[in-house]
Write a structure and sequence with these properties.
WD40/YVTN_repeat-like_dom_sf, mainly beta, transmembrane, four-stranded antiparallel sheet, flat, transmembrane helix, 7% helix, 413 residues, Quinoprotein_ADH-like_sf, five-stranded antiparallel sheet, PQQ-like domain-containing protein, Methylamine Dehydrogenase, Chain H
């Protein structure tokens, strides 16, 4: 350890020049540190984010009364980044480009917004939060969570999802992909990953490699993937148990070859999986261990819809899962997934409205008995020439329709 008397002036260097050199070095260090701090501040995610939370509490939407005599348009907004209509909190969420915004359900007035300098991959809702997933380079990796009523930022995390991903399910959420999926809990901790892992921790963690994922479903603590794997004849259905998985080492309820091509995973329940088989339409049901329970004929209508994102268009309530086949709406028992009834010539799965089910059809919304499938009258809706698929959800007494890339909110006329 040096003592003051051990310090000696540098030979031949005047004290004044030594002090000027020390000050110059200190000034350069300050400039370098300041520049680094400024560069970080400019390039950090926070600096490239514009978050405008709501300034007042949301107004509650009107309550559900009887089925309206007619429905009229209240407002509309482009929303290509929401694959389903999002009625979250007391409002409606729309998303386009790099911007997510919360709208007043009655008026469409913007209450909050969240924008980044990255393009949106998809927006969903789970566990009482809005999930906004942004693309960074070739991955959909930047996940932000937002409070639906005021848009305030919550936790964030990084995913390894590919473009085209969907965020489905509730605690855990499944992020889909053509060769890779992952699940995460409500605290955003990753619980399982399966497929082509970008950075595998240990060789052999993944049971198969090079598989192509074709369709997906999620229910409770189950995540299902219908896949085609190299060297295998026919497709394979794998059902992951996220809570028992260890990071990139997935655990399965089962993984069984189906011996078919062009099948589609339609839905999962606690103890069942439902797969639409090719050819003569029939629903294959498998139990929790992958054992075949039976095949059930199903009336799919004139057209079978094959979603590009691999997720069947469904809605759910306490008793049923409502599946839109592309030409009809089929009610599946919520527990067994057995078909209960079919309403033909529909354009979407439908939504509960009080004790009734409103199902999109040409010219309006059919009033359907959810227990029997009996169709009453059709509530007229002027869709301004739109004749494509319609997904609908209720926000109180209002109806939120997603028509292609546009959200349209309807109220009693």
């Amino acid at each position: 350890m040096l003592r003051p008397r051990d310090l000696r002036p540098w030979p031949g260097v005047p004290a004044e020049r030594r002090h000027r050199g020390d000050r110059l070095v200190a000034a350069v260090l300050v400039l370098l540190l300041g520049g680094a701090a400024l560069l970080y501040a400019v390039q950090s995610p926070a600096a490239r984010t514009e978050s405008v939370p709501a300034s007042a509490p949301a107004a509650a939407p009107p309550g559900v009364g009887g089925i309206p005599a007619a429905l009229g348009e209240l407002w509309r907004a482009p929303s290509p980044a929401t694959p389903v209509p999002l009625a979250a909190g007391d409002g409606v969420v729309v998303a386009e480009g790099s911007r997510v915004s919360g709208r007043d359900a009655r008026t469409g007035a913007e209450r909050w917004s969240y924008t980044r300098d990255l393009p949106l991959c998809t927006v969903g809702a789970a566990d009482g939060r809005v999930l906004a997933l942004y693309r960074n380079d070739e991955y959909c990796s930047e996940l932000s969570t937002l409070t639906p009523d005021d848009g305030r930022r919550g936790p964030a995390r990084t995913l390894d999802a590919r473009p085209g991903t969907r965020l489905i399910g509730q605690d855990p959420v499944l992020a889909t992909g053509e060769d890779y999926v992952e699940t995460f809990r409500s605290d955003l901790v990753r619980t399982a990953e399966y497929g082509t892992v970008r950075a595998a921790e240990e060789p052999g963690d993944q049971p198969r490699a090079g598989c192509t994922f074709r369709s997906f479903a999620s229910a409770g603590d189950r995540a299902g993937v219908l896949e085609q794997c190299p060297g295998e004849t026919g497709e394979r259905l794998s059902v992951i148990r996220p809570s028992e998985s260890d990071g990139n080492r997935p655990e399965f309820d089962f993984s069984e070859r189906l011996g078919t091509d062009d099948a589609r995973l339609i839905a999962l329940a606690e103890d069942r999986a439902a797969v639409l088989l090719p050819g003569e339409p029939r629903l294959l049901l498998l139990d929790r261990a992958g054992k075949r329970v039976g095949e059930f004929p199903v009336d799919v209508g004139r057209t079978v819809n094959v979603p590009a994102d691999g997720v069947a268009r469904t809605s759910t309530d306490d008793t049923s899962r409502y599946w839109w086949t592309g030409g009809a709406t089929v009610a599946l028992d919520a527990r067994t997934l057995q078909p209960r009834w079919t309403v033909p010539d529909t354009t979407g799965p439908g939504t509960r409205y009080g004790d009734r089910l409103l199902v999109p059809v040409a010219g309006g919304l059919a009033d359907v008995d959810p227990d029997t499938g009996t169709v009453g009258r059709t509530v007229p809706v002027d869709r301004d020439g739109w004749d494509g698929p319609v997904q609908v959800t209720a926000q109180g007494g209002l109806l939120v329709e997603l028509r292609g890339d546009e959200v349209v909110v309807l109220g009693p006329a």
